[in-house]
Amino acid sequence: MEDPEEGAEPAHNSHIIVKDVSDFTLLLGASRRIVNGQAFERGQWPFLVSLHYLKPNDYTIHTGIQHLCGGSLIDPYWVFTAAHCYSDDLSEGFSEVTQWRAVLGEYNQLIKDDGGQTVEI
């Protein structure tokens, strides 16, 4: 499928860009653009969960953002997410559940206290 703006194939990767384009997105191998994305209204997706890792690591140090994985709230006490988010194979210490928190209702991760609800895990 061709990108009509640039006449080239869109980048295929699994990285999520959570901050404006920076040198760090290149370090991660992430694309400099979002393909087929669309804006959404505050509260439109109330079941989406941002999972934050609390220990400093290369990603949070370079971006200032603690979001490392996403999930879906499937019950008042349960979040469905990918198993690799908590794998020490990805980074040592990720399996320590107490080092994570869930943030629900956050609209913009670059704005402190934008109305999200934080829940310790």
TrEMBL record:
| InterPro entries found in the cross-reference section | Peptidase_S1_PA (IPR009003), Peptidase_S1_PA_chymotrypsin (IPR043504), Trypsin_dom (IPR001254)
**Which keywords does this chain's UniProt record carry?**
Disulfide bond
Source superkingdom: Eukaryota
All residue ranges annotated as the Peptidase S1 domain in the record: 34-121
- The answer to whether the entry has keyword Disulfide bond is yes
Under the heading Pfam families, the entry gives:
Trypsin
Q: Name one GO biological process term.
A: proteolysis
The molecular function terms in GO held by this entry are: serine-type endopeptidase activity
Which PANTHER family does this one have?
A: ACROSIN, ACROSIN-RELATED
The protein depicted here goes by the name: Peptidase S1 domain-containing protein
Q: Which organism is it from?
A: Dreissena polymorpha (Zebra mussel)
